[in-house]
Amino acid sequence: MVTIRKATVKDLKQLGQFEQGIVETERPFDSTLKAGVIHYYDLSKFINAEDSILLVADDNGQILASGFAQIRNAQDYLKHERYSHLGFMFVLPAFRGKGLNKMILDELMSWSRSQNVSEIRLEVYAENGTAKRAYEKAGFKPHILEMRRTV
């Protein structure tokens, strides 16, 4: 039976593998990523910080999925003072399509509400249609498109 729980330092090795899975999934969408092993996150920080939560979907000791929420201060010109930034969303390929991402998202949104935060944001590559559809299905809407070019 799958349960959603807070990650612990004992999970860091497997979560590091998840991070590389995210990197490999995103490489086709981002030509600016360096080759080889790269790190987006300080996962131990998310485990230990009071302003964040790192969750995993656990099936009898096997971690199948992950995601974090971090409370961040909003820009002064926005209506909300703080928002919850979601990231590190990953589901092992063999377990995709089974609702694990939604289970993690639901718990992250619940935690965010418990922190008195009503604005929740995440980033997704514009060309990553699969991820965009999953987030739209969960109620997220596109907001800003960042554009770039090289010279």
CATH architecture: 3-Layer(aba) Sandwich
Task: Count structural domains.
Answer: 1
Which runs of at least 5 residues are low in confidence (pLDDT < 50)? none
Taken in chain order, the helices and strands follow as EHHEEEHEH
Assigned CATH class: Alpha Beta
Shape: globular
Give helix % range.
25-40%
- How does the major sheet shape up? 5 strands, mixed
Give the count of helical stretches: 4
Tell me the fraction of residues in β-strands, as a range: 25-35%
Mean pLDDT over the full residue set: 95
For the secondary structure, the number of strands is 5
Question: What would your notes on this structure say?
Answer:
This protein is of the alpha+beta class. It is built from 4 helices and 5 strands. A hairpin with a 2-residue loop joins strand 2 (52-59) and strand 3 (62-73). The protein is globular and about 45 Å long. It starts with a strand and ends in a 14-residue tail after the last helix.
Topology diagram in text:
Layout: E1 2-6, H1 12-26, H2 43-48, E2 52-59, E3 62-73, E4 82-91, H3 100-114, E5 120-122, H4 129-137
Short description:
With 151 residues, the chain is α+β, with helices and mostly antiparallel strands.
Features:
151 residues, five-stranded mixed sheet
